[in-house]
Design a protein that fits this description.
By secondary structure, this protein is mainly alpha-helical. Helix content is about 65%, strand content about 0%.
Length: about 180
């Protein structure tokens, strides 16, 4: 599947539509998944790899008629948080961790160096809290292009009830990056 995913644009887009299910209404996910699964097998063949992929997707993300998925749809669905312009990932936590590791300058500092850096971090956080208390609104995105991409995605999401399912998933799949 990997080779074909990298070389066949239509195949690539179709597989990415599965991840775009995260931008559907939760109650629509099983039906839209079933449509995508059927299209995958009809358009690209009933191969063991496709059947294994669909079985994994059903077991992990969508569930079966009488069996819940490993992760409930409500846990991974991003439509509502995207509409509210809230973060969809934990990238802010990862960003802080990477920045803090950079400040440390090493993987395993001694306890005194760690305490010293934690005190520096506390001063920085207090300064941010003071700005927030004064009414300053921090930017939601660290880069302008992220904000622009999110606005574009929201402009698609608000068309959910107007667009047909396939067009909607294809439009959304371009905003899911692996």
């Amino acid at each position: 599947m990997g080779t074909r995913y990298a070389s066949d644009v239509a195949y690539n887009v179709h597989l990415r539509k599965f991840s775009a299910l995260a931008f559907c209404e939760e109650h629509d996910v099983p039906v839209r998944y079933a449509q995508l699964a059927s299209q995958l097998l009809d358009k690209f063949g009933t191969f063991t790899a496709h059947e294994d992929f669909l079985e994994y997707f059903e077991n992990t993300w969508v569930g079966w008629t009488r069996r819940n998925p490993r992760f409930e749809v409500s846990m991974w669905n991003c439509k509502a948080v995207t509409e509210l312009e809230l973060p969809r990932t934990n990238n802010s936590v990862e960003s802080w961790h990477n920045a803090f590791q950079g400040v440390m300058g090493m993987q395993h500092p001694d306890v005194y160096k760690l305490l010293d850096r934690l005190l520096d971090e506390q001063v920085r956080v207090k300064a941010i809290c003071a700005k927030l208390a004064a009414g300053e609104v921090p930017p939601l995105y660290s880069r302008k292009e992220y904000a622009a991409k999110n606005r574009q995605l929201i402009s698609i999401i608000v068309m959910y009830d107007v667009m047909n399912a396939d067009e909607y998933l294809e439009a959304c799949c371009h905003y899911v990056i692996f």
